Amino acid sequence: MSKNRLIYLPLGGAGEIGMNCYVYGYGPVDKExxxxxxxxxxxxxxxxxxxxxxxxxxxxxxxxRKDRIEAIFITHAHEDHIGALGHLWPKLKSKIYARRFTAxxxxxxxxxxxxxxxxxxxxAPRPETVEAGPFKVQFIPVAHSVPESSGLVIDTPAGRIVHxxxxxxxxxxxxGEPWNDExxxxxxxxxxxxxxxxxxTNVFSTHQGRSEATLGEPLRDLIMRSRGxxxxxxxxxxxxxxxxxxxxxxxxxxxxxxxxxxxxxxVAAAQESGVLxxxxxxxxxxxxxxxxxxxxxxxxxxxxxxxxxxxxxLARGKYLGLEMKEGDLFLFSSKTIPGNERGVIKxxxxxxxxxxxxxxxxxxxxxxxxxxxxxxxxxxxTLLKPSFLIPMHGEHRHLREHARIGLSKGIGAEVVxxxxxIDLSGNSIDVCEYIETGRTYxxxxxxxxxxxxVVRDRIRMGLNGHALATLILDESDDVMGDAWVELxxxxxxxxxxxxxxxxxxxxxxxxxxxxxTKVLADDDKLEEAIRRIVxxxxxEEIGKKPEVTxxxxxxxxx
Amino acid sequence: MSKNRLIYLPLGGAGEIGMNCYVYGYGPVDKExxxxxxxxxxxxxxxxxxxxxxxxxxxxxxxxRKDRIEAIFITHAHEDHIGALGHLWPKLKSKIYARRFTAxxxxxxxxxxxxxxxxxxxxAPRPETVEAGPFKVQFIPVAHSVPESSGLVIDTPAGRIVHxxxxxxxxxxxxGEPWNDExxxxxxxxxxxxxxxxxxTNVFSTHQGRSEATLGEPLRDLIMRSRGxxxxxxxxxxxxxxxxxxxxxxxxxxxxxxxxxxxxxxVAAAQESGVLxxxxxxxxxxxxxxxxxxxxxxxxxxxxxxxxxxxxxLARGKYLGLEMKEGDLFLFSSKTIPGNERGVIKxxxxxxxxxxxxxxxxxxxxxxxxxxxxxxxxxxxTLLKPSFLIPMHGEHRHLREHARIGLSKGIGAEVVxxxxxIDLSGNSIDVCEYIETGRTYxxxxxxxxxxxxVVRDRIRMGLNGHALATLILDESDDVMGDAWVELxxxxxxxxxxxxxxxxxxxxxxxxxxxxxTKVLADDDKLEEAIRRIVxxxxxEEIGKKPEVTxxxxxxxxx
Lengths: 558, 558
Description:
Mean pLDDT of chain A: 96
Radius of gyration of chain A: 29 Å
Helix content of chain A: 25-40%
Shape of chain A: globular
Low-confidence stretches of chain A: none
Strand content of chain A: 25-35%
Oligomer: homodimer
C-alpha cells in the first residue's frame, strides 16, 4: 500500500444547503496537495445571525495550508457556490478555474474587490483537462438553474472521483446543454468511478424531475389570459427561466422590462458569455412607463421576499416610477426556500391589499426545481456505478436518506458532514480526522468568527433589552452623587406602574449606601453586585432579566 | 329606517391568521350594546417581536366602552381564540359564555390568574340560547381540530348572523359531533341569514377536505411497521388525533406515554369534560423507562419546533430520562405553520444525526387540516344562503379570495380587516369607521403597546449592536479623564486591526479636546456630537452604525 492517500474534507455544504466548500487532497499524510471545489456563502437570519451580512465558510484549515493548494474550481455561478470567492480569495491567492459564464460572474465580483481578473481561468468542458498537482480535472456540463453548471471529473492516482455539482436530468433545459446519459456512461467506462460526491437537495422528492421546457406553455397561457400589467419574479441567475418568461411575454405582445440590479447583470453576463441568444428586446424602466399596462411585463428580483429587492419595493409602493395596480398579476415563478415564508407571505398580502392577483407556482405549473429528484439520483448512481457514494449539498436528513439509497443498492455510502476528513484510498470510507471548522460572518465590513460572541450578545440584547448602570467614585472610594441607569429595549414602567429606571436607581442607591468599603474598592465585586441587583429588580418589576453593562468611573487625585 | 344599527368590528383575526377578536354591536349610533367573540393571541417571532412572550389584540376601544359590553363568547379552546382571555378579562370584567370543554380550559387559565371561575358560564349547544342585551346567541357544534368547537348563530333585531368559528365539514370527526348539513339548512330556513362571517384559512386548498377518520388506518400501519420506539407529535389540543394515535399504538401493542405539560393537561380536561371517552391507558414517563422500546409510543408536544416543548428537548438529548435512539421513529402528525419551518427542520436534522427515522405528514397521509377547504366553504355558502359574506380568520389574500368566491355566486361580500367597523343594517355593507387598533405585547410580566418603541429598540440593538460612551465633566464643564466606550454586540477590532473601543475613545478624546465651552456646557449638544462621532467612526472601522447611548455625568459643587 502506498503511503499516499486520497482525502475528502467538506468545509461547507455537507449538513446544510448552502455555503458549499469541498476540499480534496492527495499525497503523503499531512503533505497532501489540495484542490478546493466551490467557495460559497449562506444567508443570515434574524433568529440566529441578526445584523450579519453574509455567512462564509471558515477556511482557517485551508489558510494554514495554502502553500499546498493547487487550484480552486467553481462549479457554477450560484451564490452558495461562488459567493465567498471575492471575500476569501485574498487568504488563499490560488489559481481559479471555471467555465465561461461562471468566470464572467466571478470576474465581476473580483472587479468590485479590486482583485485581478486573470486569477480566474476559463476552462472548456471535457475533454479539456486542468492539471493541478496530482489532480486532473474536467468540467462536465450538467443542467441546473443557472447557465453552464458543471460537475467535475477529478482523476487522482488513487482513482477517479465524480463531483456532481448541482444538477438535474433535464433533456430540454431551454438554455445550455441537455442532460446526456452517454457522457456519464463514458466517464464510468473510461475509468471506474471510485467515489461519487452527489447533490442531495431533492432526495425526498419521489417523482421524476420535470424539464424547464415544460413551463413554456403554461406561462404563455397565464400571461395571455392577463389583462393588466404582469410582473414575474424568479431567481435572477435562472437565465433559462428569464428567457421562457420573456418569450411568453413576447407571444402575448408585451414589452419586457427587467427590474433589479442582479437581474440586469445576469442577463448582460449571459449575453456577453454567449450562453443567452435570442433574448427578446428589453425596454428600460423609463420606457416601460410609456407602455400601456396590458402590453407590459416586468421580470423582477426578489422571489424570496428579500426586503431590498424589486418585488418588495413594488409591494411597498412605487419603484423607479412603476407601480402595481388593481387587476395586475404578480407571478412567483419560483418556490419559497424554507425559512423565507414570512417575507414572501408579507409581499403576497401587500399585493392583495392593492387588488393585485398573486399567483404562486401552482404546485409546479409555473416553476420546476433545478435539482435531481430521487429517481434521477438513482439513475445517476446506475450510470456511474461508483464504489462509494458520498452525499453532499444537503442537510443531515438529506445526506442520510441519500446514503441509505446507496447502501440499499450495494454502494458503499457514508454520511460525511462539514469538518469530517475521510480517506478514500482503500476499500472502505475511513474517517481520519475531525477538523475544527465552522462559519465566518461578514459583519459590515469585517469578518468575525461565529463563536466570537458578538452575535450572541446581539441576540441577547434583542431578546432581553439592555440596561446600563453608571457610577462615579471619588479618590476615597466614596460614591459621588447617585447611580444612573439608562434602559434600551425595556418597558418604561413595571407592573406596579413605577418608572423602571427610577426603581432601579433607588434600589442601587440603597445598596451603595450600605455597601462596605471592600466592595466599593473592588471594581469586579462592585460591578457584579450592581449587575445582580439590576437583574433581580427588573425581574420583579417587569418579569425579565436584561443584559447589564456597568461602568464604574473612579476620580483620580489630580 | 330605525335609528338603531347593527355593526361588526374585527379587532384581530381579519388580515392575519391568529389573535381572533370580533365585536358585534346593536343599538343607536355610539350607544350600541356590544358582544365580543373570542379573545385570542398570536405568537411572536425574532424578526418582528424579539423577546415578546405573547401578542394580544389591542382592546382599548372595547375598554373605553366596557359598560356597553353584554358578554364575551368563546367559540373554541385554541390559543388564537381563547389565549388572551386570562390576560385581558380584568380590563373588561364581562360575563363569558362557552361550551363545556372550552369553559374547562378557560377556567384552568382563570385559576392561574386568580380570576373567578364563575365568570365563565357553560352553555349547551343550540337550541339553548343566551340572551345578551339585544343579541340572542346559540352555539352550533362544528368539527375542527379541538373538541366542542362551535359556530354561533347571533340573532339581532336587524337580522340573523352566523359566525362560523373555525370549522371543517367532517362527517366522522373521531371526537365530537359530525358535520350536519341538516342543522345548517334549518338555521337558514328558520330565519334568513343576513351575514355569514366565515373562516377563510383554507380558501386556497382546492380539493375537498378529508375526515379525521381517514388517518386511523395509515397511522396504524406505520406504527405496526416500526421496530424501535415511536414518538409522535401533534397539537396537544387535537384530542381526536391523540385518540387516533393512542388507538394505533394499542393496536400495535404499545404502551402510550404523554410528554409535555399541555398534552397531559388537554387529555385531562377532555376526560373531565366528558368529550374524551375510551382513551387507552397511559403510562407515566417513569413507567415508560421500564417498557421495551418496541412496545412504547410517546405522544409529545412541539409539532411546530417550539424550543421548550418535548420534541425539541428530545432532539437535544434526554427528556425525563427518555431518549431517542437509532432505529426509532419520530412522526410529525402535523403540518408546519408558515414561519415555523426553521425550528421544525432543526429538530428533523437533530433526530437524523441520532439515526432516528423522521416521518412528516407524507402529503396528508398522517395529518388532515381542521379547516374547511374551498369546495367545503362553497357548500356552506349554499346551505346558509347569506345576504352578505364577510370572510374572517385569514390574511388579506385569504379574505380577498374568499370574498371573490362569494361575489362570483351573487353574495354581497367585502374584505373587512382589523379596525374596520361596518354597518350591516341596510341592504349593503357600509364602512362606518376606521378604529385605531393594533397589538398589545405581553413582555415578561407587563403589557406594552406595539408602537411604544421598546421592541423597535431591541431590533435595532440586535441588528446594529450597542455602543455606550460615558464622560465626566467637572463643575466648570471641563472634561475629567477620558471618554470611556463600552461595546456590546460589535466586533472587537475594525478592518485595520485596531481595537474599536480604543479607536472610538481616541476620536472622542480628539473631539473633546477641541470642543468649545458652548457644547461642553450643553448636554443635548454634547450627546449629539458624541453619538455622531461614534456612528461615523464605527462606520469607517467596521462598516456598521451601532445604536449609541451617551451618559454625561456632571460633578456638582459639594
